[in-house]
TrEMBL record:
Protein name according to UniProt: Mevalonate kinase
Coiled coil: none
UniProt source species: Methanococcoides methylutens MM1
Keywords: ATP-binding, Cytoplasm, Isoprene biosynthesis, Kinase, Lipid biosynthesis, Lipid metabolism, Magnesium, Nucleotide-binding, Transferase
EC nos: 2.7.1.36
Assembly behavior: Homodimer.
Pfam family, one: GHMP_kinases_C
Amino acid sequence: MITCSAPGKVYLFGEHAVVYGEPAVCCAVDIRTRVSVGPADSVTISSSLGTTGIDFETHPYVSAVVERFREITSLEGVSIRIVSEIPVGSGLGSSAAVTIATIKALDTLLGTGLELDDIARMGHEVEQRIQGAASQTDTYVCTMGGVVMIPQRKGLDLIDCGLVIGNTNIFSSTKELVANVAELNESFPEVIGPVLSSIGMMSTVGEDLVNSKDYVSVGKLMNINQGLLDAIGVGCAELSSFTYAARNNGAYGAKITGAGGGGCMVAIAPRERVDDVAAAIAAAGGEVVVTEATDIGVREESR
Ligand SMILES: Nc1ncnc2c1ncn2[C@@H]1O[C@H](COP(=O)(O)OP(=O)(O)OP(=O)(O)O)[C@@H](O)[C@H]1O
Ligand SMILES: C[C@@](O)(CCO)CC(=O)[O-]
Ligand SMILES: [Mg+2]
């Protein structure tokens, strides 16, 4: 049995706009998905979602990874077991983490010798196939770890303050949210185009602020980014309520992370205010995860 793991992620800036080629800044976080693989006669995929064979309804990302390996190896059967700390369909990159950890586990089992860049590229192809339109952000950051600026693939300084996540526990499908934004953009291109460009500008302006650890200014930009995410229709009442709760209780800034429409928000906060921010989000009805940035990307855990 070989076990590999990959981290979840939060966006400081730029989700959705990055699908249109705008820059984004994304940060790997210390909650992980673990995928164990071993030889078997047929394909079995087991996770909290159920136990299946190749099945594009229940396990689309993992099924697509298996099909991709069948193109480059003589793979027939394999047993795949997924255990994840990352809530599913939550904006924390659960699809990227399961995809990348499965690729690394199969690469290790089958001896295909993929480099990290190959793993990130294959992961992106899988997300594009299943999601319809997908940026390289989630799969790249979850492969490499750390804080990454996309599309430059540039590593920024690791975030050195508290990260507090508030989960609405409202399931959201990234595929659907990306399609909704595309529809809005088709209806009002003159209005939505500039909003997407402004979202991209957050990363351009924010890059130096992240590297100089000016989290007061990073937080202000995150708050502006949140307003623009609301403008493109990916907010919801719970996400707004949690972001205001965080901001009113010591956070530098707070916004949706990932696709939105439900899922999670993220606040950055001084470490001494993390407990206050967490309590305020919980009082507003959120399920809280306190975490940290991590520079550990995909890795083998055991064999
Ligand atoms: N632990 C898991 N086991 C099996 N499949 C998973 C697991 N976690 C995620 N998935 C797959 O990923 C899908 C959710 O991906 P989706 O992109 O919609 O949300 P997300 O990745 O959590 O959020 P975002 O893309 O906004 O960061 C699930 O429906 C499932 O197919
Ligand atoms: C909404 C989106 O920008 C982020 C999802 O985590 C989609 C993508 O980049 O593929
Ligand atoms: Mg996803």
